[in-house]
Recover the amino acids of this structure.
């Protein structure tokens, strides 16, 4: 795994742990007030804490798996329907399609695996089969 990917995951884990700490403080505050009308708020906070804890567990699992697999982030410039598009293959937890970060498990990332500049690839998407030309691989 490259250092940048690992740092992003560790940063995300740190952020989520800080959010959990904030939620725990709010839960304790709600419990001290012990207002029966606030039971819904308390349950919402407990649910949010559980969700964040599951995200942390998932990120830590990704780190463990990727330390073993030596994942290397890779970027591509592709031509699709006459337009250039930039894509970076990242860990599933770092996916952000709006910024061009696609999961290493996505059909496009799988099709790009081992391909070089000048090659064409075909990918089946919800919009049908799409063709891409690799303009650059880095």
């Amino acid at each position: 795994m490259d250092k940048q990917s690992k740092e992003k995951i560790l940063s995300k884990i740190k952020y989520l742990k800080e959010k959990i700490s904030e939620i725990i403080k709010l839960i304790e505050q709600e419990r001290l007030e012990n207002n029966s009308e606030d039971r819904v708020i308390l349950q919402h906070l407990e649910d949010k804490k559980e969700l964040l804890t599951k995200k942390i567990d998932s990120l830590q699992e990704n780190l463990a798996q990727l330390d073993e697999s030596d994942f290397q982030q890779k970027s591509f410039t592709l031509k699709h329907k006459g337009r250039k598009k930039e894509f970076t293959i990242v860990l599933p937890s770092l996916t952000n399609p709006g910024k061009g970060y696609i999961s290493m498990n996505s059909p496009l990332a799988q099709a790009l695996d081992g391909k070089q500049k000048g090659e064409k690839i075909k990918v089946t998407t919800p919009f049908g089969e799409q063709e891409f030309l690799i303009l650059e691989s880095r």
Observations:
- The chain has two domains: 3-69, 74-137.
- The mean pLDDT is 86.
- Helices lie at 3-33, 39-69, 107-112.
- The longest helix spans residues 3-33.
